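User: Hello, can you help with two protein structures?

Assistant: Certainly.
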Amino acid sequence: MTMLAQLMAIVALAIWLTMIFARGFFWRMRERDDDLAPLSPAAAASITATAIVPARDEAETIARCVTSLLQQQCGARFDVVLVDDQSSDGTGALARQAAEAIGQAARLTVLRAGDPPPGWTGKLNAMRAGLAHVEARDGVKPDYILFTDADIAHEPDVLARLLGCAQREGRVLVSLMAKLACDSAAERALVPAFIYFFDMLYPFAWVNDPARSAAAAAGGCMLAQRDALARAGGLEVIRAALIDDCALGAAMKKVGPVWLGLTQRVKSLRPYPRFSDIRNMVTRSAYAQLRYSPLRLTGATLGMAMTFLAAPALAFHPDTFVGFPAALAFALMALSFRPILRFYGLSAWRGVALPLVAAIFMGFTLESAWRHWRGQGGAWKGRYQADAESAMR
């Protein structure tokens, strides 16, 4: 047993040395929009952009979302298309009222989406309807499409920064990971880890490197070059994707460089006051990330256990050749969590709880698979959407 424990401790340490030094330094969380210089009003004057906002029962947040978009200080010609995805709470009317309240009603179009065709998720169908409307309009077509969610608020300089990155660096997709709410006990415990695991899975430095194949995006804020989107095959190529943002990032990187980073300027308006709220967010698509494969699920579960649970379990082993490498691996793990904790204004001591948090996310992933097997995968506001995607694998 001691030899097995020694082997596990050494493997755990090797994993964390690799994670720290050979995975794009993901844990440093250095890719941020602070480094994106805004495009000057003079340079933006010749650019046209349109925001497409899919919205389904977003009465609580839609006014703040639409207002923040219509108040962008950029210099580009910019309008907003809201696609009301069969809401029952007056989302579309509230959006119009918000635009009228700031004297910008002429720059807002509200559409009503129909039922998703076979093979399409509801959100992507709404995005498709908005894009089809934009393409059918008379006059100059937009150079860029800003896909954003109805529960997101943007500070006034966000569009200028996105355009600055796209124009200066030739990026066909520029995406910002919206800062999630982190006020409740559940949010403080789990939200930083959610971002940490995402960056671990898709190291932002690798995503932003044109020479690497890694690709991803964050659905709350994605500025796409319209012509490049068409070359990538449009939204049709990702029509069934539950993780639509990363699917779009992968499609767009095939036709040009992309950029993804963190931000304090784009914020989610959706609170997660209870653990069950975050659980539902994760279980909706976690199994989709594993391509609905039981083999991948088994491998991911074992890999997470070895990565996050083995080191703390063995750190206090009486055999020095077990305890020391395990303790070192545990220390590297906890320290790697500090930058994202700092980003959310939380104590670095929370890093020692990362193994427990990882175990919780492992449970969410297993539950996601269970929900899928029961025909309840991809649950979102009355729709179960995972079956469409799994059928197209």
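That covers the first. Now for the second protein you mentioned:
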Amino acid sequence: MRALASAIVLLTATCFGQGVGPLAVGMLNDTLKVDFGAEAVRYSLLSAAVTTTLGSLLFIWAARTIRGDIQQAS
């Protein structure tokens, strides 16, 4: 069960990180270019960093219950 969960997390992270991530940053850059000009690159890449930080915080939040989940499963 742990191996399957780990594989699903890694597959999802890879698909979004290497597939959807650059596309989303590029689309956001094109959208922000109208308002911010050359600074749009900075803000679109900053949004990627903020999203990654938010994801790591959510993983930390979910990890608080892992001991109880393991005890409940066994």
